[in-house]
């Protein structure tokens, strides 16, 4: 399965595609200068348990880091992903 993640700013989300078909997304919105809230992560149930959501989070957070932004992980999956992957802890906005 070939997974790709792209930022779709007009929809305020990162989308993950499997073999060219969008199967999930990580929603975001700007809550402060340089800070994104991550309120929702969703993956089609047919792709659950296959690492798609983790791939989506990794690629999304890497892109956010490249842009010099911080995050407020509201979604429980985003919170758990960052907790399991402490290399992303520096992205969490303290405030």
UniProtKB/TrEMBL annotation:
CDD domains: NAT_SF
GO molecular function: acyltransferase activity, transferring groups other than amino-acyl groups
Keyword Transferase: yes
SUPFAM superfamilies according to UniProt: Acyl-CoA N-acyltransferases (Nat)
Keywords carried by this UniProt record: Transferase
N-acetyltransferase domain sequence ranges: 1-95, 6-93
Pfam families per record: Acetyltransf_CG (PF14542)
Origin: domain of life: Bacteria
PROSITE patterns: GNAT (PS51186), GNAT_YJDJ (PS51729)
UniProt xrefs under PANTHER family: BSR4717 PROTEIN, PROTEIN NATD1
Protein's UniProt name: GNAT family N-acetyltransferase
High-level lineage: Bacteria, Bacillati, Actinomycetota, Actinomycetes, Streptosporangiales
């Amino acid at each position: 399965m070939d997974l790709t993640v792209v930022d779709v700013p007009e929809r305020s989300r990162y989308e993950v595609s499997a073999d060219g078909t969008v199967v999930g997304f990580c929603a975001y919105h700007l809550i402060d200068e340089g800070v994104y809230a991550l309120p929702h992560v969703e993956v089609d149930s047919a792709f659950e348990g296959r690492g798609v959501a983790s791939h989506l989070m990794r690629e999304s957070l890497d892109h956010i880091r490249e842009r010099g932004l911080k995050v407020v992980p509201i979604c429980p999956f985003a919170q758990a992903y960052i907790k399991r992957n402490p290399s992303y802890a520096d992205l969490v906005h303290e405030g």
